[in-house]
Amino acid sequence: MAYTRKNVSKLTRQEKRRFVDALLEVKRRGEYDDFVRTHIAYFTTDGESGLRPAHMAPSFLPWHRQFLLELERALRRVDSSVTVPYWDWTRDRTTGSAPWSADLMGGDGRPSDRRVTTGPFAYAHGAWTIREGVTDGEFLTRDLGRSRDPIALPTAAELEGALKDGVWDAAPWDSTVTRGFRNKLEGWGTGRGSASWRNHNRVHRWVGGAMLGAASVNDPVFWLHHAFIDLQWTRWQRRHKGARYLPANPPGPGDVQHGRIVARHEKLPPWDITPDRLENVDRIYRYR
C-alpha cells in the first residue's frame, strides 16, 4: 500500500517529532553521512569529465527520486510511520514559516558565523555534527535569504514557467539548455547574479550555508526541498500526458555527451535502477 508524503506545514506535532527522531537516529547510526558522501561523489558538473547522473543532466529528477527513496527507507527502518514531508517554498516563503520552527528544522544561522543555534540539529545539542563536507566546519550553517545580498525564493509563476514546458529535456543535455522541463526546474540559467539561479537552484542559494554545493545534504532541509521538487515531476506528468524522460537512447560515439548522460533505460549509478522504472511510483508513495 502506498504511503503519503505531506506538506510540512500540515504536519502534526507528533509527526514532526517522529520525523526528527528518525533523522537523528539515522545520523547516530552513521548512515546519514553515507548519504552526504554519495551526493558529493555524484555531483559532477559540465566542466568535469565522466558521467553526470545527479546534476546538470536529464537524470537530475530520477537520480534524486531514488536518493529520496533510499533516505526514506532508512528512516522507515527506524519508524515505519515516517515519510519525508515536502516544503512548498512558493507558499512558505519567510524565515518564520514552515519548516523553520524550533521543533523541526530550526532557524537561521547567527550573524557572526551562520551557525544554527535553534532546533534539534543545532551543534550544541550534540546530535548533528558535520563530518563530511568541503570545509572543516562541524556545525550546521544557514543564511536564510542571504543577508548581505538578499534574494527571494522562487515564486509560483516562476515554477509554472518550468511546468508548462512539455518536453523533458533537450540537447546538449546540460546546464546550458534553455528548453525543457528538467533544466527550467533544476534552474541553471544565463546571466549573472541571482537571476542566473532559478527554481531548485535558487532555493539552495536562499537557504545558504551548508545548502551550498555538493555537501548540501548536511542540512536536513535538503530532503524537504527535494520532495517538493519530486512532486513537480508528478504534476508535470499529469499535465503532459504521455511525455517521457529523454533521451530515450544514449548519444552516439560522435556526440560530446557520449558516456556523460543517462538514457531512459540505462542504470543510474550507484543503484541498479533506470529512469524508466522511476517514472511511475504510484505504488510506493503519493503526495497530499
Provide an overview of this structure:
This protein is mainly alpha-helical. The chain has one domain (3-97, 150-287): di-copper center containing domain from catechol oxidase, CATH 1.10.1280.10. The protein is 31% helix and 2% strand. The chain is built from 7 helices and 2 strands; from the N terminus they run βαααααααβ. The chain has helices at 13-28, 31-41, 60-78, 156-163, 181-186, 199-207, 221-239, and strands at residues 3-5, 285-287. A two-stranded parallel sheet has the order 1-2. The chain is globular, with a radius of gyration of 18 Å. The mean pLDDT is 96.
Provide a compact summary of the structure:
The chain has 288 residues and is mainly α. It is built from 7 helices and 2 strands; from the N terminus they run E-H-H-H-H-H-H-H-E. Helix 3 (60-78) crosses helix 7 (221-239).
List the helices and strands and how they pair.
Blueprint: E1 3-5, H1 13-28, H2 31-41, H3 60-78, H4 156-163, H5 181-186, H6 199-207, H7 221-239, E2 285-287
Helix pairs in contact: 1-3, 3-7
Keywords:
di-copper center containing domain from catechol oxidase; mainly alpha; single chain
The CATH topology comes to di-copper center containing domain from catechol oxidase
Structural class comes to mainly alpha
The structural domain count equals 1
- At the fourth level of CATH, the homologous superfamily is Di-copper center containing domain from catechol oxidase
Number of contiguous helices: 7
Round the Cα radius of gyration to an integer and report it.
18 Å
* Helicity level: 25-40%
User: Mean of the pLDDT scores?
Assistant: 96
